[in-house]
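cron nightly-structures :: item 1 of 1
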Amino acid sequence: MTVNKTKAQAIAYMKTLKGKGWDFDGAFGWQCFDLSNMQWNYLTGGKLYGYYAKDIPFENNFNGLATVYKNTPSFLPEEGDIFVMDEKYGEGAGHTGTVWSANLNTFVGLEQNWYGGGRYKTEVAQLVTHTYDMNMYFIRPHYKAKASVVSKVKDKVFKPSTSKTKGKKILIASGHGYNDPGAVANGTNERDFIRKYIAPNVQKYLKQAGHTVDLYGGSKQDQNLYTDTAYGERLGDTKNYGMYWVKQQKYDIVVELHLDAASASATGGHVIISNQWPADKIDKDINNCLKATVGTIRGIDPRNDLLNANVSGRLNINYRLVEMGFITNKKDMNYLKKNYDKFSKELAGAINGKAIGGTSGGSKKAKQTKQTKWNWKGRFTPNTAIKVRTSPSINGKVVSNNVLSFTRVKTIKFNFIVKADGYWWISYTSKGKTYYSAICKITDNKEKVKNEKYWGKLKWNW
């Protein structure tokens, strides 16, 4: 692959993109990545790779094709450069486009989906002015010095070498099954958690991306891929059971999902593949997905001592086993329980090869803020001495060691509740001022106040 256009040709082509919407890969409408790929495809006949836009500088080999510059206070982009913004933009996915003009204070980009209209094809390629960010990258193609007569003629009839994304046939297999629950810890078991919370959601998101997706054992997921493969081997039946049956169905991608188990301190996921074949893009994307979510305990792990991996290697099935974290680690499981839908979407995106659904480039990554206050009123009658504080915190100033003697009432009417410092607090007014008292420790796994054991009797509403 070479850059076979001059800079003048590249800029002229870039200007033809303005005012129209471009869907290079045929998926999720007019994304920012599509526009940069239109430009790159025109220059080279190839395409840019990356799970997200932010990955472009790192997931492509630009040797001999372009120079990648990281922004500095003195760097000045040039017209036609491809710019890439980091994860602060696009809700973590980054953003990209081409440079229309620039000075040392701002630059103007030609781009799509900055305002979020790309997925629904309501936002065409347009000019947007940006200030600089230290983590921006600019990719400057090594243009051809002079255009040939042939290339000038081709410019008149150029059509991008794009193709609609063709859906894959995918199998998602939840680990264990039948009477085998898998590992058990932290209030759940491997078999049931994956079947209820992860596999169906991964299937849902992959279907949204246009793939045909089956769950092993059907919608009930009432089979065990390992047990079925072993049964087929015992019978000498290499067509009808487990991985041998999978081979007959001609799946393009097979993903088996598990939760690891070890000491309580072990944490993070990893991807297991057959040692017969090197890791492919799907394996690498899933590994990156794990890094960004539960973390990883090790890199991609080629194995020759696992039945399904060995059979997949012999039969040339595109298979991997994904350990999604440790069921024996409280942090891993708390993350998966609280974020199972988000995690499933990220995992589906890794299998898909790009994020599912797209994001608005102009939407900076939101800081994760958890609700800590609820405007729920009620009555609380303590059955023990509880401190009165000026703020809902264990560090709040104590004005009394007993709320009953302080307020001189048996039942306290509170105005709202607060979650802080591992406790639930009520807020009430006494003597014209606002005070707080803890009513219980937070012990419920889902941190729901109505599931807690209070230090007294609580009734909601006045």
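cron nightly-structures :: done
Residues 7-156 form a domain with the endopeptidase fold (from Nostoc punctiforme) fold (CATH 3.90.1720.10).
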